[in-house]
Amino acid sequence: xxxxxPGEASNLSWSVIGATHVEINHxxxxxxxxxxxxxxxxxxxxxxxxxxxxxxxxxxDVKVKVRDKDL
Length: 71
Hints:
By secondary structure, this protein is mainly β. The protein contains no helices and seven strands. It has strands at residues 3-4, 10-15, 21-24, 29-30, 34-39, 45-53, 56-66. The chain is elongated and about 45 Å long. 6% of the residues are buried.
């Protein structure tokens, strides 16, 4: 989900074609070109995936919003 409670899981999934190196920030690191990762953010976080093919790279980010604890 794009919005979760603090510490609740959100699933990031991706599919990249033609990249030799794919990584996601916030401690996830290098990943396969196709996959998923469960994240458990305590605060609203923007995750950025970077795909590299030779000297070309592309990035895409997604925001996982964490709801206020009072809601």
